[in-house]
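Appendix C reproduces, verbatim, an entry submitted by the partner laboratory led by Prof. M.T., so that reviewers can inspect both the input and the predicted structure.
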Amino acid sequence: MKNSVIGEKAIIGKNVRIGNFTTIENDVVIADNTWIGNNVNILNGTRIGENCKIHVGAVLGGTPQDLKYKGEYTLLEIGNNTIIREFVTINKGTASKGKTIIGSDNLIMANTHIGHDCCIGDNCVIGFNVGMAGEVIVGDWANISGLTAIHQFSIIGEHSMISGMSRIVKDVPPYILASREPLSYCGLNVVGLKRRGFENEKINELKDIYRIIFQEKRNTTHALNLIEQNFKQTLERDTIIAFIKQSTRGIIKGIFE
């Protein structure tokens, strides 16, 4: 821990390893068994869970890059077992949400930026050089490939897979594979769903639901009405319907539209 600076009021758990030339400010909490590499900056308002790994050059809890931010007290919360790779930057929240939230068991790859007030669920993979603007929501088990740019306020559904070098300006519904330019529905995230224990019957149900939404050239309201009328109520069916109804930016289109 050569030449590191640790605030006297910082709360550091048991068996925390802190590398050389790292700065940890006063208003920071780091839970047990977390590993912190060299040249890391952990700034006021940051809360880090257990068993995390934070690699060289990461900057956590930085001031929001939002001109509306006036210095209000806000937080960055990071759950357990999350890996943050080299030179990742994650800003804390603003008055809008009060905090940026990174869930548990996530992998955030090198050089990624996560803006103020974002909320990332659990078990997500965020690829290298992803640029995530403020107030983005990412559902559990989402996989966002490298070099993707995400517009502010976008919502990315659970169990979705985004191809590399994508541009996200519309919401991405859950369970799907999204690719091409402009970003479009390209089928289900079948590989990811099978890895997480989804049975073939459930996968076929999801395919049938999304066929109505994306492939049969109906408007969204009509498509949702058909789904509610013709599919029995399940968690996945209701998750899709709720996601689309609550979308304010609108969802991506299908390649067949």
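Residues 150 and 168 are 5 Å apart (CA to CA). Additional entries are available on request from the coordinating office.
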